[in-house]
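Incident log, entry 3
Record: Probable molybdenum cofactor guanylyltransferase (221 residues)
Problem: checksum mismatch between cached and fresh output.
Input:
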Amino acid sequence: MTIITGRMIVSDPLHWCGIILAGGQSSRMGRNKAFLELEGKPVIEHVIDKMRACTDDLILITNDPEEYDHLGIQTACDVFPHQGPLAGIHAGMKNKEAEGYVVTACDTPYISVSIYQLLKASLVDNDIVIPTYAGRSHPLSGVYRRNLAQEIECLMEEGKRSMKALYEEGHTVYMDDFNGIDTEEVDLHFFNMNHPEDYDYAKSIKKRGKEQRQLNVNMIR
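Fresh output:
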């Protein structure tokens, strides 16, 4: 894969797979977030389009695979169902061979290819790269090396389902400098939809001009 960083175009030696996590119950939204319409197509299609732009392959992790059959991408179920995002990352690694994995959730329509490129470039000498934003780490926007697969499986078998447990198993670094990427693009990359008002905000973004957009950081926290 080729990565464009600033004005430089460099060859990426790793084979990358995108893991899209769609295992949540959408209980706070009241309906499946992945299929809410945004700018003329379902949110999940926005996510797929962005992930295809920064990976070589894709897999979607869900415990209801028939709902996603029409999307034309591989799906897989959790080996450890209902055990959180670490179980989803494990399922992605187990079902799709790659050297590096880019992770996102199904309700993040404005993820940034540029941010993922920066994270990927930082994985060269590390096992995990986690972005931090608004005082929080965001593991569901992180990148991970293949060599963690066995460690993740061991953690799940031991009932250790937290992402922090994984950080201790590999060389983990945190990124909070997004190298001059537009502030709004960074804001929106970390925006996800948990409540109906989040969906309303997402729909309003296209309607407002860039100079008028003011992302409410409290909606992300």
